[in-house]
Amino acid sequence: MNRTYRIHPDDNVAVALRALNAGERVGTDGGSVVLRSDVAPGHKIAVRDIKKGETIIKYGFPIGTAARDIAAGDWVHTHNTKTRLGELLEYTYRPGFRPLAHEKPETFPGYRRKDGRVGVRNEVWIVPTVGCVNSIAKQVEDECRKFLPPEVDGVCAFSHPYGCSQLSGDLRNTQLALCGLIRHPNAAAVLVLGLGCENNNIEEMKKVLGPYDEERVKFLVCQEQEDEVGAAVDAVRGLFRYAAQFKREPCGADRLVVGLKCGGSDGFSGITANPLVGAFSDRLVAQGGTAILTEVPEMFGAETILMNRCRDEAVFRKTVDLINDFKQYFMDYHQKIDSNPSPGNKAGGITTLEDKSLGCVQKGGTAPVSDVLAYGRPVTRKGLNLLQAPGNDLVASTALAVSGAQIVLFTTGRGTPFGCPVPTVKISSNSGLARKKAGWIDFDAGRLLDGEKLPGLSREFFRYVMDVAAGRKKTKAEAFGRRDLAIFKSGVTL
Q: What phi-psi label fits residue 93: left (phi over 0), alpha (psi between -120 and 50 degrees) or beta?
C-alpha cells in the first residue's frame, strides 16, 4: 500500500495515507522526502520547499499560502498555512465543460404520484405548522403506528421549533420548507397540523402551498377540536387508506432527484467518498436524472470550478449571486468568511476552507451546472443544480429534501448518526470509520485507499443507491428511525 497520495501533478503537498513517523522516507509520486515530524493519516506533507507567502497547491488549485518557510518533508497544516479568502469578488464567465454522454436510464420500482412525480417511499407525514403542536404530532404518530397498513412504509411526524414569533424572511423560509415537505413525492399523503393562533396558521400556509390534492392533504386546527389527538388519528387513518392504493411500478432513473452533502469531512473525503459521489452524480445526470449540490460556504475557494461549468451566462450570473450573497450574509453578522473548517475537519487533516471546498465540490462530478435554486424552492430543471443553504448538516440536508430530493447522499470522514426527512445514505471516506460505526455507515468509500478502482466501486455504489430507491435496502438512519428536520433561520425571534 502506498503511504502518501499526490492528487494532482501540480500539487506541492501530498496526503498521508497512514500514520507516518519523523525520519521516514516516503515516496511522493516521482520523488521522495524525509519526514521532519510525525504526520497523521489524512494530513499533508510538503513535497518540496515552499517559501513564506508562496501558494500551497492541492487538487491542482490553491488552498492557502505559506505563513512561514516550509521545508520538504514538513507537516503542512494550520500552524504554517493561512487562507487566501477575502471579501466579495468579481468573476468572469470562462465556460469549460463538456456535456455528458447520454445513457439509457436504468429502472427501479417507484411510486408514481398523481402529479406525475415519483416517490421512493410510500409514507404518511404529519407536518406541524408551529412548534407548539410538536408533542401532539408525535403522540398522533405513536398512536397511528398500530394502524399502519402493509402497503404504507411508515408514518412520521416532523418536529421543528418555528412557525410563530418569526418575521419576514424567517417566516417565509419556514413556510417554504414545510410546503416542500407537504408536496414531497415520498409522502403519499400528509396531515398538516396547526394550533390556530400562530403566525404560520393554516390559512397563511395555504397561500404559500398553492393548489393541492384534497384527498392527499388534510388540515386540522387543534384549538378547534375538543379531542385534537383523536381527530388527528382519525384523519391519519383515512390518509392510510388513500396511501394504500399506490404500488411500486417501473420508473426510470431520470425520475430520480438526489441530494449531495458532506459533513464531518476529513483529509480523505476529497480523494475517496466525494469523488465516488461525483461519479454517481455524473452517471445519474447522464441518464437524465437530477442531482442537487448545496452547502454554499463550502464552495468558497472552489466556486470558479462550478461557475465555469454553468450551462450559460444566465446560470453563471445566478451562481455569482449565490456565492456573493452568502458571503454578504456572513459579513452582515460581522463573521469571517473563512470561519470554517470545524475542529473535527482540522483534526482529520483539512487545513483551510479552500482545502475543504475543493474536496466538497467534487460531489458534483463534472456535469454542467443546469440551474441555481433559492432556499426552499423546488427543483425544476434536470441535471446538476446548486442550492442556497448553509453548511450545517441538518439544515442543508433538510433543504435538499425540501427542494425535492428523494434521497440524500451524505459523505463523512468523522461519522454522524442523523437522518433527514428522506433516506440518508452515509458514505465513509475511510474504512476505519466504516468498521467502527457500522450502525451509522451505509457504504465504505475508504476501499479506494486499499487499491480498489473508482470505476468498479462507482458501479457498485450506483447499484446500492438504486436498491435504496427501490426499497430493497433501508439506510441505517431509516432502520433506527432517525428523521430530523432543521429549517434555515437567520433573523429576529419575537
A: beta
Backbone angles phi, psi at 405, to 5 degrees: -65, 125
Is residue 41's pLDDT more than 80?
A: yes
Given pLDDT bands bounded at 50, 70 and 90, which one contains residue 228?
very high
How many other CB atoms are there within 10 angstroms of residue 114's CB atom? 9
Please tell me the distance from the alpha carbon of residue 258 to that of residue 190, in angstroms, as a whole number.
22
Q: Are 396 and 389 in contact (CB under 8 A)?
A: yes
Q: Which residues pair with 426 in a beta bridge?
A: 410
- Provide the angle, in degrees to the nearest 10, between the axes of the packed helices 168-183 and 393-402: 60
Cβ of 23: how many Cβ atoms within 10 Å?
11
The grid coordinates of residue 422 equal: 428522506
pLDDT tens digit sequence for 153-165 = 999 999 999 999 9
Output phi, psi for 332, to 5 deg: -60, -30
DSSP string, 72-98: TT-EESTTTEE----S-----------
Q: For residue 373, what are the β-bridge partners?
A: 387
Percent of the chain having pLDDT more than 70? Answer: 100
In three-state secondary structure terms, 291 is: strand
Q: Are 257 and 405 in contact (CB under 8 A)?
A: yes
Q: What is the mean pLDDT of residues 285-307?
A: 97
The 3-class SS string of 151-196 reads: CCCEEEECCCCCCCCECHHHHHHHHHHHHHHHHCCCEEEEEEEECC
pLDDT in tens, 234-261: 999 999 999 999 999 999 999 999 999 9
Phi then psi for residue 424, to 5 deg, are -115, 110
- Dihedral angle over CA of 247, 250, 255, 260, nearest 10: 80
Work out the pLDDT band at 1, boundaries 50, 70, 90.
Answer: low
Per-chain mean pLDDT for the chain: 96
pLDDT score of 269 more than 80: yes
* pTM of the complete model: 0.96
Give SS3 for 299. Answer: helix
User: Is the C-alpha dihedral spanning 144, 145, 149, 152 positive or negative?
Assistant: positive
Give the chain's radius of gyration (CA, Å).
Answer: 24
Residue 215 has pLDDT above 70, yes or no: yes
Cell of 316: 453563471
Query: Is the pLDDT reported for residue 30 higher than 80?
Result: no
pLDDT for res 2 = 80
* Beta strands 443-444; 424-428: pairing state: parallel
Burial 297-307 (b: 16+ CB within 10 A, else e): bbbbbbbbbbb
Q: Tell me the residue ranges of DSSP E strands in 294-336.
A: none
